[in-house]
Amino acid sequence: MEATTNTFLSWLEKEQNKTYENFINGEWKSSLSGETYPVSCPGKNNIVLGHFPYSTEEDVNLAVEAAHQAFQSWSQVPGPDRAAILLKFADLLQDHLEELAFILSAEQGKVLAEARGEVGRAIKETRNVAGDAIRIEGTTLPSEKSNVTAAVKHQPIGVVAAIAPWNFPVVTPIRKIVPALAYGCTVVYKPASETPWTSIKIMELLYKAGVPNGVVNLVSGSGSKVGNPLTNHPLVKGVSFTGSTGVGTRLNEMAARRLVKTQLELGGKNPAVVLDYEDVNVVAKEIVGAAFACSGQRCTSISRVIVLKEKAEELVSAIKEQMNALKVGPSWEPTSTIGPLVNKDQLETTLNYIKIGKDEGATLELGGEVLSEGEMGEGNYVVPALFTNVTPEMKIAKEEIFGPVLSVLEVESFEDALEVANDVEYGLAASIFTNNLSLANRFVEAVESGMVHVNHGTASQAHVPFGGVKQSGYGAYSIGKTNKEFYTNVKVSYFQY
Ligand code: NAP
Description:
With 497 residues, the chain is of the alpha/beta class. The chain has two domains: 5-266 and 472-496, Aldehyde Dehydrogenase, Chain A, domain 1, CATH 3.40.605; 270-462, Aldehyde Dehydrogenase, Chain A, domain 2 (3-Layer(aba) Sandwich). The protein has helices at residues 5-15, 57-74, 79-95, 97-108, 112-130, 171-182, 197-209, 223-232, 245-257, 280-292, 309-324, 344-359, 395-398, 414-422, 437-446, 483-487, and strands spanning 18-19, 22-24, 27-29, 36-41, 44-53, 139-141, 148-156, 159-163, 186-190, 216-218, 236-242, 261-265, 270-274, 302-308, 363-366, 385-388, 405-411, 426-427, 429-433, 451-454, 469-470, 473-474, 488-496. A seven-stranded mixed beta sheet has the order 15-16-17-14-13-19-20, with helices on both faces. Strands 10-9-8-11-12-22 form a six-stranded mixed beta sheet, with helices on both faces. A hairpin with a 2-residue loop joins β4 (36-41) and β5. The longest helix is centred in the first third of the chain and has 19 residues, at 112-130. Bound molecules: NADP nicotinamide-adenine-dinucleotide phosphate (NAP). NADP nicotinamide-adenine-dinucleotide phosphate binds at residues 163-167, 190, 192-194, 222-224, 227-228, 231, 242-244, 247, 250-251, 265-268, 299, 400, 402, 428, 468, 472-473. NADP nicotinamide-adenine-dinucleotide phosphate (NAP) binds at residues 163-167, 190, 192-194, 222-224, 227-228, 231, 242-244, 247, 250-251, 265-268, 299, 400, 402, 428, 468, 472-473.
C-alpha cells in the first residue's frame, strides 16, 4: 500500500466498523457476554473503527485454561524450534508492516511515520528475543562430593498474563508475548480497551507463523472485568503489566497474595538536564523529539528540562523554534508530525494540567490550544505546550501528564540539577546534555532512573534492557537477558553417579 492521504482514507472506509472476536485456543470466539464495545478513531471521533468483545471472567477462564493446557506441550518444544516460529513471525510482521502501521495509526492516532517505526521496532525486538529461546543457559557448580554434580537450570513459569496500555499497541504486546514464547511460557493477553485492533492482526500473524493453538490467547475488554480476573486466576503464574503506576501497584498487591511474579513497566516524569553544548539547536531537537513523539504519550517522554540559568534563554528560544516547526494534524496526512491524543479523556487531562500550570504561576510560553476549526474539531488535537518559570514543587513538574506538555526549570549548578532531577517519585529515563565527561559520569551514577542517555533524547534500543526504578517499575527489566528472571523459575538438581 502506498501511503497517501487518499489510500489511507479509502483503506479506512473499507475496513472500519467491522466486528471482531477474542482469540482463544486457536479459534475466534465472541465473548460469552454476547456484548461488544465500539472503538473510535482519535483523529475523527465519529468514525467507529470496529466493535470488540466486552469480555467477562468466563472468557478469561476459557483463555487461561487453554493456555494452561497448551503449556504442557509448548514448554516441551525444543528452544530452536520455538525460535524458528518466532523468526517466521518477525518475517510476517515485516510483510504486513504497512497494514499494521495503518491500523495502529488509525486506532492510536500516532502519525504514519511513527507507526511504521513502532512496527519496525517490534520486528527488531522479535528477531533479537527469538534467539533467547536457544540461549537459556544454566550453570553447573563444583560439588561438595566427588560423585555428585550440582546444576542450576531455568524452566518456564507457565501461563503469563500480559496486560498492555494504549500508547504502543504493537510493540508492547510483542515485548511480552515474544519472550514468553521464547522461554516456553504461554500467554493470555489483554490489550488496552482503546487499542484492541492491532492485537487482532498480531494474533493472525502469530497463528500463521505456526504458534500452536492455545499458546497465545487474546481477551479484550475492560481492566476491571478482564484484567482483574486474569491477574487473580490461580493458573496464571506471572503478570507482565505495562501501564500506570496506580493500576500496576494494585495488580502487584493482588499477585503478591498468591506469590505470583510480576514484571511492571510504569509511569515516568523524565528529566533532560542541560549543562553545556556546542550547538544549542542539536540539543533542542533531541529534547523536542523525545518530548512530543506520540504526542507526549510515551512513558519515556522528556517532560522536564532542567537547565543552568545562564543557558536557559538561549535553550528556550531554540526549543520554541523546534516546536514551531511541529505540525499537528491527522495521523494519515504526510505533513503531520504530531497526531491527536488517544481520546477525549486524555485531551481533558492534558488541558487540565495546562490550567494547573498557569494557576500555579508558571508561564505558558507556547501552545496549549485545542484545535477546533473544521476537521480538526472532529478529533482530539492540541498544540504542544511549553512552560517556563516552573519550580520543582509545582504539579506540572512532579506528576506524569502523559500529553504534550514540557516544563523548563532553571537551576544554579549541576548539584541543583541532580537534586531536581531526582525529586520526583518516578525513575524511568533521564537525559543529560554536556561535554563535561566527569559531570556526565556523575549524573549516570547518581540519577535515580532505570535508563540514562548522555547527549541524546530518551530513546531506547531494541536489544537493550528496558525498565525503571522507584515508582516507574518493578521486577525484571524487559528486552534481553533480564527477561529470563521473570519468565523462568530456577530448578536446582543434584545428580549422584
Ligand atoms: P492504565 O490505565 O494503567 O492501563 C493499562 C492496562 O491496564 C490497560 O489494559 C487497562 O485496561 C488495564 N487495567 C486497568 N485497570 C485494571 C485493573 N483493575 N486490573 C487489571 N488491568 C487493568 O494505563 P494507560 O492509561 O493505558 O497507559 C498510560 C500509562 O502507562 C502511563 O502511566 C505510562 O507511563 C504507562 N506506560 C509505561 C510504560 C513503561 O514501559 N514504563 C510504557 C508505556 C506506558 P483498560 O484499557 O481496559 O482500562
